[in-house]
């Protein structure tokens, strides 16, 4: 199936479902995250660095680590970085191990971080989740925000579940298992619905 622009995908899904169309009208257009100079690999590095700490702390660590890497994250640079350099950047031991595991698996071909990879979404998830510190949710966010895949349905994401409940007035909020089939009517653009469900958490759609 040929790839289409995000705006066209939003228009297509809104045309199928009046409730979703109202959400789109309320939220307005959404956009992809800007691409970073170090590409998908850099996004994965930043995701690992940001786990379980505040945004401010994460940005400080990422800044120091990037400076030590010459400004860009590459698997070669991280593989060669000493433990001392990583500790001085503020990384915990667990995150150091995760970054080394990621670098090794990119370098040996286990994980393909090419933006033009032909691997399916599930193939990418399966390989990424072999990396220490990367679970299914992180892999799905990577697919949606970095590779810009349009048919990802992160049913385990609390904001997606809550946003779906608010938008379609489902009470109680669907579980991950219950939400999985609810995305089927929106194939092959489930990422669009997921993104808007996340936005819906910040809106009072019941008024």
Question: What features would you highlight for this structure?
Answer:
single chain; 207 residues; mainly alpha; Endonuclease Iii, domain 2; Endonuclease III, domain 1; 2 domains; 59% helix; 0% strand; elongated; DNA damage; HhH-GPD_domain; DNA_glycosylase; DNA repair
Structure description:
This protein has about 210 residues and is mostly helical. The protein has two domains: about 5-30 and about 150-200, Orthogonal Bundle (Endonuclease Iii, domain 2), CATH 1.10.1670.40; about 40-145, Hypothetical protein, domain 2 (Endonuclease III, domain 1). The termini are far apart. It has helices at about 5-15, 20-25, 40-50, 55-70, 75-80, 85-90, 95-105, 120-130, 135-145, 160-170, 175-180, 190-200. Helix 1 (about 5-15) crosses helix 2 (about 20-25) and helix 3 runs antiparallel to helix 7. InterPro entries: Alkylbase_DNA_Glycosylase/TA (IPR051912), DNA_glycosylase (IPR011257), HhH-GPD_domain (IPR003265). This is DNA-3-methyladenine glycosylase II. One of its GO terms (molecular function) is DNA-3-methyladenine glycosylase activity. It is an enzyme of class 3 (hydrolase).
Outline: elongated
For the termini, the CA-CA separation is 39 Å
Count of DSSP H/I helices:
12
Number of structural units classed as domains: 2
Q: Could you say what the CATH topology of the largest domain is called? A: Endonuclease III, domain 1
Structural class of the secondary elements?
A: mainly alpha
Q: Approximately what portion of the residues adopt beta-strand conformation?
A: under 5%
Give the oligomeric state of the chains in this entry, treating copies of one chain as homo and distinct chains as hetero.
single chain
User: Runs with pLDDT <50, length 5+?
Assistant: none
Report mean pLDDT, rounded to a whole number.
93
Radius of gyration: 18 Å
- Helicity, in percent? 55-70%
CATH superfamily of the largest domain: Hypothetical protein, domain 2
Number of strands: 0
Write the CATH architecture name of the largest domain: Orthogonal Bundle
Catalytic activity: Hydrolysis of alkylated DNA, releasing 3-methyladenine, 3-methylguanine, 7-methylguanine and 7-methyladenine
Enzyme class: hydrolase
Domain HhH-GPD: 49-199
Keywords: DNA damage, DNA repair
């Amino acid at each position: 199936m040929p790839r289409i622009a995000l705006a066209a995908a939003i228009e297509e899904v809104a045309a199928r479902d009046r409730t979703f169309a109202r959400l789109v009208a309320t939220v307005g257009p959404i956009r992809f995250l800007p691409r970073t100079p170090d590409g998908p690999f850099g996004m994965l590095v930043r995701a690992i660095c940001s786990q379980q700490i505040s945004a401010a702390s994460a940005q400080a660590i990422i800044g120091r680590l990037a400076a030590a890497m010459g400004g860009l994250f590459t698997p070669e640079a991280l593989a060669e970085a000493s433990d001392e350099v990583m500790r001085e950047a503020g990384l915990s031991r667990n995150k150091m191990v995760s970054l080394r595991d990621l670098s090794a698996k990119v370098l040996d071909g286990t994980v393909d971080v090419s933006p033009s990879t032909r691997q399916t979404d599930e193939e990418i998830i399966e390989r990424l989740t072999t990396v220490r510190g990367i679970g299914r949710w992180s892999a799905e966010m990577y697919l949606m925000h970095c590779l810009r895949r349009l048919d990802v349905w992160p049913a385990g994401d609390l904001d997606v579940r809550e946003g779906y409940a608010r938008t379609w007035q489902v009470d109680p909020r669907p579980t991950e298992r219950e939400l999985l089939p609810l995305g089927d009517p929106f194939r092959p653009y489930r990422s669009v619905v997921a993104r808007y469900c996340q936005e819906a958490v910040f809106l009072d759609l019941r008024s």
